[in-house]
Amino acid sequence: MGDLPLTPLISLIAGIVILIMPRLLNYIVAIYLIIVGLLGLFPQLAG
């Protein structure tokens, strides 16, 4: 399990969750965009 890449796993879980609760998609996308935007503006936050 340690060799499993994280991004496809997250994508798979997110896809299943969105199928079950489509309304959640709006929140997931919004949070993702905010995080990407913050990391773009403040790269020091990433590490």
Describe the 3D structure:
With 47 residues, the protein is an all-alpha fold. It has one domain (6-46). The protein contains two helices and no strands. The chain has helices at 6-20, 24-41. The longest helix has 18 residues, at 24-41.
Task: Compile the SSE list and pairings.
Blueprint: H1 6-20, H2 24-41
Listing every helix as H and every strand as E from the N terminus to the C terminus, the arrangement reads HH
Q: Kindly state the mean pLDDT as a whole number?
A: 85
What is the first-to-last residue Cα distance? Answer: 25 Å
Which descriptor suits the 3D outline? flat
The beta-strand count equals 0
Structural class call reads: mainly alpha
Residue stretches low in confidence (pLDDT < 50, at least 5 long) are none
Strand content: under 5%
Discrete helix count: 2
Provide the gyration radius in Å. 13 Å
Domains (count): 1
Helix content: over 70%
| Largest sheet report | none
Keywords, separated by commas or semicolons:
47 residues; 2 helices; mainly alpha; 0% strand; single chain
Entry summary:
The chain has 47 residues and is an all-alpha fold. It has one domain (6-46).
